[in-house]
Design a protein that fits this description.
107 residues; 25% strand; alpha+beta; 4 strands; four-stranded antiparallel sheet
Length: 107
Amino acid sequence: MKNLLLIVTVALLAFACSPEKTETSEASETQVTYEVKTIAASVTGMDCHGCVASVKRALEQDNAIASVDVKLDEEMAYISVKDGHDPDFAQISETLSSLGYGFVLVD
């Protein structure tokens, strides 16, 4: 009985200590890199972090935009644009206006 208990214990320890198998697909290892330029825009009408999230979501709908950083305390959005792409700022302004926010690009 002791031998059986010892064999089971060793087997469990060996199983528990064995490295996990992980599978990765080639698609998950592919990274897309873009050159970006950052554009600043004034965004008025934001009162809370929910407003910040709404503005960020609206801006990220444009495929030319790589990332967005919206600052509530500055009333600014810093928009990183993919190289060779032009965001539709007229559409973005219209969308944000419909949500109750003002949007003006800053030189």
